[in-house]
Design goal:
This protein is mainly alpha-helical. It contains twelve helices and four strands, in the order H-E-E-H-H-H-E-H-H-H-H-E-H-H-H-H. The relative contact order is 0.12.
Length: 240
């Protein structure tokens, strides 16, 4: 059985009080898009500041203007993300543009200290030679797509708003089909989750997931989806 926790970015988080919440984790691609937007915003602001300093240099001197320019670069590169992510929205303008926000691993808003840690660790994530190889590798290796800064700060990047996507009706339930083999508790849970979430996915997505359970169903494609749904129906009836 495929692990739906890995195939779907919607993940469950159990709080200390025993309450379970679900967060949709953001992968490297949308985060890269948000970073690009923030980079362009900072570059534009820095360009405007540079033009202003060029004129101010005549009055205050070149060294003073150059120092102010370096200060502006520091604030934009290091403080800009901290201020926005520690704020009420928990997101920089770039993240807000693509519908992301930074939260604690429990789903709570991050603290100022966490914002400082995750952003100041970006220097390590950017290594070697600003290729961000360390950060990308960490994202791909982490179940919650956490870069090194997120791991150090205990934060995750999640979707603040879920983009709408075409949804087709789930296949109608057929006669229950008994499982040909015994399943573990996790595999049985994954089977139940498949039936519950099938209506949220497109037909192609259902087929993609069901095909990974072809060893269980003995078939692929739409017949595999139907058979997997029938097995899930059998498991549910057995529980009831």
């Amino acid at each position: 059985m495929p692990d739906l926790e890995k195939l779907d970015t919607l993940q469950s988080v159990e709080l200390a009080e025993g309450v379970e919440i679900r967060l949709r984790m953001a992968g490297p691609m949308p985060r890269a898009g948000a970073y690009l937007i923030d980079f362009l915003i900072r570059a534009a602001v820095l360009m405007i500041v540079g033009i202003g300093m060029a004129f101010a240099g005549v009055a205050v001197g070149g060294q003073v203007a150059g120092g102010l320019m370096l200060l502006a670069w520091f604030l934009l590169d290091w403080i800009y993300p901290v201020i926005f992510e520690a704020g009420k929205r928990g997101a920089t303008p770039g993240k807000r543009a693509v519908g992301l926000r930074v939260v604690q691993s429990t789903g709570s808003p991050i603290t100022f200290g966490q914002a400082v840690i995750r952003n100041f660790m970006r220097f390590v994530d950017g290594m070697p030679l600003f290729t961000y190889a360390f950060g990308i590798t960490s994202c791909l290796a982490s179940k919650r797509f956490q870069r090194l800064g997120d791991l150090a700060a205990g934060t995750v990047v999640v979707y603040d708003r879920i983009p709408s996507s075409p949804v087709t009706a789930a296949p109608p339930p057929m006669a229950p089909v008994p499982l040909p083999v015994g399943l573990t508790a996790d595999e049985t849970r994954a089977l139940a989750l498949f039936r519950e979430r099938a209506g949220l996915w497109s037909e192609g997505r259902r087929v993609e997931i069901a095909d990974q359970a072809s060893a269980l169903t003995g078939t692929t494609g739409l017949p595999g989806v139907s058979r997997l749904m029938a097995m899930a129906h059998w498991v549910q009836e057995k529980r009831d």
